[in-house]
Structures are given as C-alpha cells and as structure tokens.
Design goal:
InterPro entries: Collagen_mod_GT25
Keywords: Glycosyltransferase, Membrane, Transferase, Transmembrane, Transmembrane helix
Family: Belongs to the glycosyltransferase 25 family.
Radius of gyration: 35 Å
GO molecular function, one term: transferase activity
Structural class: alpha+beta
Organism: Aspergillus tanneri
Largest sheet: 10 strands, mixed
Oligomer: single chain
Length: 454
Amino acid sequence: MELRGFESYHICASRLSSLYPLSRRRSPAVAISVPTSASHAVFGHCTTFHDADGDIMQRIVSIPLAICVFLLYNILLFRWQRGHPETFRWGEKSPSTELNSNPAVNLEKPDLLQDTQNATLGFERVFAVGFGDRTDKRDAMAMAASFVRMDLDWAGERLDSTPGKHRGRPDRRGSWFAHTNVLQQIVDQKVHSALILEDDADWDITLKAQLLEFARGSRAIQSAKQAQRGRNLRPVLSSPYGDDWDMLWVGPCGITARGEQPFYAIPNDPTVPPVSRRTEYEHPAFADEEGMEQTRFFFASTGGVCTTGYAVTYEGARKILAQLSMMPSNQPVDVAYSALCGSSNDYFRCVASYPPLIGIWLQKGSSDLNSDISDSGSPPHEAYSSGIVYSTRVNAQRLAAGKQTCLAQWEDAKPSEIDSATFTSPRGHLVQMERPETKIKPSHSIASNSADAR
C-alpha cells in the first residue's frame, strides 16, 4: 500500500512538473513514500495525496475563490444601496422617525393620495375631543367612526377636572382646555399631522371619497400659490394633503376666503347640501349663485367659526399654542384660529372647504343635550345633522342592519339614496375668483356666534 501511494504521488508530481517550464521551477519534485489518508481529484487521474499536500492545493483554489465571492458581494451591495439610499443615511434621523410613528402613514412614496383611504384618513392620528363624562356622545362617536373604518384616539377631559364649573358642567373654558390638551399632545409626541374632531361631529358616509378629492384640491391650491411666487413645491410630499399648510378647516360653521386666489371647484357634487339647508354663519357669496348650488369649493381661508373638525400639522399645533398662550382662556378657541388664518405673510396657512365636510350632530330632544358649555333654551327637536347630506349618524340604524346604501336627510337632496361602496367624488379643477364677497346670515354675527355658543 505504501509503494502504491509512493508511485501515485510520483506520477502526479511528474505530470505537474511537466506543465511548467524548467526555468519556473525552484526545486525538483520530491516523492515521499508516506501512507495516504485522503483522496483528492486532481486533473482527473491523480487521486492519492498526503493530507498536507491536499491542504496546499485547497488553499491554491480557496483563496482566489474567496476573493471572487468578496468582490461579487460588494458589487451587489453597492447596486442595492443605490436603489435604497434611505437605508444608508448614517447618523441622520428620518422624518418618519422624528415626526411619524404610525405605519399607516407612508412618508416615503412620492404619491400619498391613497393614504386618505386608510384608518386615519391620511393623517398620522385622529383625535376625538370631548368630556369623558358624556359617555352617550363617546358611544355615538365610536359607532359613527366604525361605519367609515376610522380609528379614533380619545383626548377627553372630565367635567370635574375643568375650571369654571357651572352646576357640574364646564363653561367655555372646558372647550378651551380640551383643545389645548390635544394640541399639546401633538407637540409632545411630535405627531406629524392630526385630524381633531369634537364628539358631536358627523360626516357623510362618503367621507373617504370626499377626502381623496380634498387632497387633490389642497395640493392644487398650494402648487398654484407657490407658482405665483415663482417657487415650486418639493416633489416628494410627506402628506397626501400637501406640505404647505398649517391647518385644514374641514368642519367650520362659518368660513371666509382670501381674495384673488385660485379656488378648487367640484361641480355636480351630490354631497353638497341644497342652499336652503345650509346653516353656516358666513361663507363666500358666490357659492349660492345660480349654477353654483351643487358645487363644492376648497380655498385658502382668512378665518372661520367652529372647531367641529379641523386638521393641524406639528408646526401648526405649535403656532396655535403660541397664539393661545397670549389669550385669556375664557374666549372661544376658534377666535385664536381665525386670527391666525387671517395673519399676513403666510405665517399660518389655512385651507378650508365650503360647504364643510364635517357637520354637527344634534340628537333628538332638548337642544341643551347637545352642548356641554351653554344652555340655549331652544325647544326640543328631531335628530338631525347640520350640513351633511348622507349623514352617517342619521343612517346609523340602517348601516348597523347591514344596508349598503344611505338615505339623504332632505327630500330636495338628489339622489335620495347613495351607495358608499361604489361612490366616487366628481373631479374638481382650479378656477380663479377675484375678491369673493362674504355672505353673512342676517340673524347671526361673528361677534355673538362662535363655536362655543351652541
């Protein structure tokens, strides 16, 4: 066996030496007769080697192979890195880390319009503001949110923890603190954007379809405004509603518009209430003109009334808190909001809807049941929702029974029935309106009617 091992090794050594010129050989091949313990296939014929010699041959093959694998890995890594640059921003904080903790809000993809259809309507959070003691309102709010698949975060106050109690019920300071508390939460938690709804808010069953078009309109208004100033908005947005806004006033009960600006008009919108059913204190007068009755408008606002529904950015919440810190807490919060929207130099940028997208729900019975801050003395009434055609709350029992369609509140609203599953909002477009006049209801005035007067 040893002789065979010696002969095999000698033959292989001879063959290997014949492959190289004599000038490149440092020493002649030496055959050593040692028992073999391993077999290696070299050149297809020489199979028997000593272990040490096998290790040498393995190294000859392994080192170049390892180098090739290393180079191939780095080439592939470099190509992948070019396609995913955000992963390699060493030492930087991503905006989504600093101002966004909700994975439902995608801050990376260039077009976020479809985020308006998620459970937070394209915002990072949706807050419901109210008093924890009013469990009836909380229950109704949770029910209404479920029908449009909306997730709510409650930011309530207790009646006995709010200053200025009146027979166990807070005065308007309760509303002040309820709103400031949620604004502080937005700032403290660095919430990128949030929709704030009061606990008597109501909305159309087609809310998500409406907000999809509102997002298009909000972007178009911001883009047109920047183009007039010779600036362009950055192509990658962090919000489906654009980035050049501080507040979206979607639930006012009175709103004013800036003059000589582009409006985003949505003609033939079936969710627009008939003119005779509108209850807002003030609004752009042209919205009531012939041919405009079924048109919804989005525009830059100079102020408004009511805080039933509005959205703010992180920066917008900070600006509001700064404004509120200089005002007495016995004034309605919408006074501060209106003053900010009317500020010059675009310090506080407001985009609004008329008619509003968020209305006020009034339950059946005494009007005093609907307010936590005042006694109106009004007579009892039937349940209804102001300014909302296909009211989610009015249709609550119908929706709970599994019906796919909702009925209009009024006989003069057309169509009388709508299917939210198949409804799509009409597409809008920009129109230029010069110095729009404001129409004020004769029986109301801004000085005596605020969001906290109901």
